[in-house]
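Archive entry. Fields below.
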Amino acid sequence: MSSDHDTAFIDLRAITKRYAGVTALDSVDFTVQPGEAVCLAGENGSGKSTLIKIISGVEPATEGTIRIAGQDHPTLNPRISAAAGVMVIFQDFSLFPNLSVAENIAFATQLSTHQRFFRSRSARKIAGDALDRIGVQIDLDARVESLPVAQKQLVAICRALASKAQLIIMDEPTTALTDKEVRRLQGIIRMLKEEGVAVIFVSHKLAEVLDVSEKVVVLRNGKKVAEGPASDFDTQSLTYHMTGRDVPEMPPSDVTAGAQTLMQVQGLTKAGSFADIDFELKTGEVLGITGLLGCGRTSVAKALFGLVSPDAGSITVDGKQVPLGDPQAASLARIGYVPEDRLTEGLFLSQSILRNVAVGRLDAHSSAGFLNMQGLTEEASEWLRRLKVKAPDVEAPVKSLSGGNQQRVALARWLSRTPRVLVLNGPSVGVDVGSKADIHGIIRDLASQGIGIIVISDDLPELLATCHRILVMRDGRIIDALDGKSVTEDDLAQRLAS
Amino acid sequence: MSTHTSMKDVTAAPEFRLLVIAVFVFGLMSVLSPDRFLSAQNLTSMAFQFPEFAILALAMTIAMMTGGIDLSVVGVANLSAVVAALILTQFSDAEMPASQSALWLVIAVTAALCVGAIAGLINGSLVAFFGLPPILATVGSGLVFTGFAVAMTGGSAVMGFPGTVALIGNATLLGVPVPLVLFVLLAVLLHLILTRTAFGLRVTMYGANPMAALYAAIDVNRVLLKVYMIAGVFSSIAGLIVMSRANSAKADYGSSYLLLSVLIAVLGGVNPYGGYGRVIGVVLAVLSMQFLSSGLNMLQVSNFARELIWGALLILVMVINTHALTALRGSLKPSK
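PREDICTED_STRUCTURE:
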């Protein structure tokens, strides 16, 4: 063990990180050897992103020691970490879409060498070298926004290499890739390892990177629950360690026979995002819509709530046409929408928990313009209680809550408006494991009360645990409609990626 | 939304800091120039002076609550005053019986308020429907409004009002200056709007996160239109007070009030990024500024130095507030 620590490129010992009373990481040891590929697995909220933030210097650790390349770093910041060779490739790649491939690859390098002027010729050389290193050809002058997702990822990898990366951390590297692209990525990873570059994969879907990895580390609720050679793990054992549960969640009960059609969507089309979306939703039905990142699922979800104006098509609820492209009209038709990104779209972070719920019911509690504060407050508190939001003080800003509780607040706002149709985009993104199961329970409950629910997600176990039917989207179209009961996770994954 | 507040909550509120500042400035000026600053004459004159820019600061406050700003307040005030003044000078004269000139005063005031509302509607439309940044939309519209006022008057002052006009700016009601009464009424009104109405809560929520407001099915365009209309109407009331006190109206009166009203709103704790602001804070900031400005006047500090002091104060307050915000954020996730 001690020799492991001596040679390790990254050596974290007993790292603990607390945010306002929430322990995100609890005494975690973590090592990465040079040239080693490590899978860092865990569900949303397990602490993987916190660990990455600590390694990359974005967040300070509360306790514990950090050693990079044999050197202790009591205070780490992103600059020090980058100088030591730690490069993070985020899910969105953080590239400059309007700059060329060469500029994107060489930009960081040129900055760090303190050159005052950007040199186009040397930029092209740096970029060309980096691309050669991984044996890929991309037009150096192409604007990055014009590239497909897989090539953007390669550009991001090259940028890291050009900055002399010793460790590349990849956040959810395979989410948006097809099978073929995943295989090419695997080849590149093998090549990097031979050159002594270490790699950390951060993901909750690891099957694809398992065979190029040496080691697997599983986090759950901030604790390291498993660590070992990658060959000891398979998809099933990973899932077990990640969730701590062997039994799958209860599948949803059947839709009541003879349930009425609640919502009907016909020919919904928006040039460039989605086309010919047709589906029906019955009362009490949970309908899943899934697909890879960029398949148009979020645009469809937004269109259902009027946040995106479709070019053609119609939406009806209870047989009545809903005006398109108008969130107020959608909300009058009693459609609710809980967005994927709670922090920027879903919640008013600086405002109180109570207000975040009450804002949905202002009209119901106002007479002659003035609010009945007591009624408003009581109703909001009642919903917080019903959804079991753990909040010591409902007057505290909503940002003080954990992800799971924040999601319940967002749900509470819509539930207080007694919706007929609820569109949930990524209902458990960034939510801890326990809350996730609870939220799935809430979804099943709501459905049994006759609300029609549309779950937009790429979390396959989540879809299987909640949905009666699952629509698969690719390139803006629905390519498959599957029965939630009979389809298996592998089958679904294959249809998604093929 | 809760009604219980302990002593600790009171002293921890940012507004408490302002109370301390107001008392401190008042005390300092009283000590530096006791016989003149504390004289009844000075206190009365202060009570007549501050309401005009204080009302502009209220207009600024509601715009800032949405994360926007209204830099056209002075332009709107002057255009409204010019319109009212032209009506008064055209249709009434000193020989008219009082009842008839009072009627014309009511018509002129109504016209001025309409000008304010329309100007606000224009600002609101620019921000809501055309999506212009408020700072640019209102700088532009402010110039247009001022331009209209210049065109209507040829750039010179409009004067020769009937005596009834003095009622707005120079009279007292039960010993209290009428401008002060108007300011108190408007401050209470704005406070009630912001804290007790659905609209007020929507303004705050929109200011806290415009995107989330859209996703919460709030009619954001309507909120913005109303906000800028209220700002416009408040500005026109300030314009009428200026007109009455100066006994004339001109396209370029009160240009220094623009910076002052921004300064007061920010000093009063209104978050320029939106989502937070309390009228009581703005009122305390108004008092601090009036004490300071009146005191500096007595100490015979030049007008230019005063603007320098205000500008420096604005930056200082912003730095302190931003720093306090960062410190607060830091304390939310303690590292030890």
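CURATOR_NOTE: Chain B has one domain: 54-318.
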